[in-house]
Amino acid sequence: MPSPDTLERFIATVEANLHVEAIERFYAERATMQENDAAPRAGRETLVANESAVMARALGVRSRCVRPVFVEGDRVVIRWQFHFDWPDGSTTDMDELAYQLWEGEKVVEERFYYDPAQLKRKPPAGAAAG
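The chain above was modelled as a monomer; its predicted structure follows.
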């Protein structure tokens, strides 16, 4: 189970948009991540590479934890809201739940639940609707 301090440092790291660093600092070497029903990605190096690729495609991202955070033993549920700005001027807003299993001070499993329709990019402001 993560200590309250560790959990707060994890949330602060993500809210500072240091997503890759959050994985490096707070995920176990053998950690897995899964998007909805997709196959899980396994291993911290793989998770870091995937997150780095996503962040490299975005012009910017804003991340926010919507409280309360739910903790029951080694299980943690966090509601996140993310706003992505893309180089073409489009944006994506995501609202997701992260369901985590912690071993001590490290995440070992994480599964994200969100509506995939949110992945559709919104056109740049002032662009004609198509």
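The radius of gyration is 15 Å.
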